[in-house]
Amino acid sequence: MAWLLPALLLLVAAVQVTAVLVAGLTPWKGGGFGMFSTVDRLDYRVLRVVADTAAGPVPLNVANAVSLGDGDLPRRQHTAAVAWPSTQRLLLVADAAAALSWQQTGSAPAVANDWEGQLLLVEGQPVPVDTLRVEVWSMTFPDQRPRQLVPVKIASVERVVRSS
Amino acid sequence: MTPQLVPAPLVRWLLPEVHLVAAGSTVTVRRWRSAAALTVAAALTLLVVAQTGGRLGWEVVGLAMVGLLVPWLTRRWWFWVATAATMLNGGLRWSVLSWDNHHWLELYWVLAWAVAMLAWRPRQVLASSARRLVGLTFLLAAGWKLTPEFVTGRFFEAMFVVDGRLAPLVEAAGWQEPSTHEQFQDARNTHAPSRRPQPIDVPVSDQVRLAAQVVSAGAILLEGAVAAAFLLPWRRLQRRFQGRSSWAAQLVSRSHLAGDVVLPTFILVTYPLAPVSSFGHLLCAMGAAASHLPVRGRLLVYGGCFAAVSWVGDRQWLFDLVERTLT
Predict the structure, then answer these.
(1) Which residues, other chains included, contact A145 with Cβ-Cβ below 8 Å and sequence gap of 6+?
(2) CA separation for the pair B67, B155 (Å, rounded)
(3) pLDDT tens digit string along A73-130?
(4) Quick one: which H or E segment has residue B16?
(5) Do A83 and B105 touch (CB under 8 A)?
(6) Full-prediction pTM beyond 0.80?
């Protein structure tokens, strides 16, 4: 009986190690006890969502959408996608972003708002969106530049939207 | 001769297994010690659950408080299953991928209590579970650190610059300009919300580099030592050395106490540096259950560590100490 919970710990850790090695899970999460071992931690990862339009790419302010609450881009969905960026999780983020309205003013990333209508407004004008790109970046020390944290794209998906 | 039986309401409340204290009865004394060991470990565990329960919901805190007030409940498997279920219910409001590692360990530990209370010899099963859980945790933690990034000290070099919990230490020692951490934060903020991330310089002085190498080596050694102390079959080793009188045999005869030396050392060294007090408290509770010390000893050592981890607080005293000593 005394091996029951240690066996469960080992099982979860085995899944976590596999997910880290083959699927981009951060070693800090998932119950494998990889905390304080690498700079690839959850809060140093970045999730980007970019709307590709005929006029060029428009980055979307995902942090703003997360803060809007459960109905928009739920925090748990965002966290899960950053911690373990599987294709399925990133597509869920893309779908959640596609369900929102975004408005860009100036060169800042577009923010989600309560405006209903087109997917994207740039300077107040509706802009057709072809695809939404979702990317997750982590930080690493490259061997040739050991005193520099360098971002590395570890996962990305594209969701065709074609809004008019 | 019939031993004199002494009714003891306080003892009965604290140690549910002991209904009457029979003076001079060795059987009762043994049960008393076993019950007291369980009560100490249960109290520390429930303090941890109450502490982390604030994040999980009032029902978790409530169950922990009831368990602290009624130790009889802590001897019932269903109490621990209910506690684990409420913790899981609270934790699932977030993604499990946002859980910290000590949240996983805390859940395993509460379930280990449930399993132990179903066993014929609860204290022994609980102690074995605690030893294996702590040992495996540290084995995995040490294993993750055997990477070039960690072994060369680059991880801690970065942490001393970028981590708001560690940067103040090297700043207090005068090894790094306070502005370095702020510059990193500014650089990192430019990543937000969705711009393309850019490389960030991690400028480190020679002192920080040396400190990072020392801390990295120390972390691997200490975590490896805890894993070995809790996982190696010391009793089997002792049987092999039984009857010999060499200094090695003397040392081996006390080797089962290794865990009671290295785990408190790890707790007292680590948690002032990396203030994750809930992990420190959890290790105290598990250490108390796994301990080979007498009840008073484990209360002193692990209760003391629990208090010390709580007392670390905002660590201003540590920064002042480092500043006075090293500058």
Answers:
(1) B199
(2) 41
(3) 677 888 899 999 999 999 988 888 888 888 787 777 777 766 555 677 777 788 888 8
(4) none
(5) no
(6) yes
**B98 at A interface, C-beta within 8 A:** yes
Q: Is the pLDDT of residue B100 over 80?
A: yes
- Report the C-alpha gap between A33 and A41 in whole angstroms: 12
Q: Which has the higher per-residue pLDDT, B187 or B244?
A: B244
Contact state of B203 with A147 under an 8 Å Cβ cutoff: yes
pLDDT tens for B250-302 read 777 777 889 999 999 999 999 888 878 899 999 999 999 999 999 889 999 99
- Distance, in Å, from the CA atom of A145 to the CA atom of B302, rounded to the nearest integer, reads 44
Work out the end-to-end distance of chain B between its first and last CA atoms, rounded to an integer number of angstroms. 71
**Portion 149-208 of B in contact with A at CB < 8 A:** 149-150, 152, 154-155, 157-159, 162, 188, 191-204
Q: Do A34 and B144 touch (CB under 8 A)?
A: yes
Q: Is A36 on the interface with B (CB under 8 A)?
A: yes
CB nearest B108 (choices: A5, A34, A149) = A5
Find which of B110, B117, B140, B145 to mutate to test the A interface (most A CBs within 10 Å of its CB): B140
Output the six-digit token pair for A77. Answer: 């969905």
Residue whose pair of structure tokens reads 């002991």 in the numeric block:
B18
pLDDT, position B67: 96
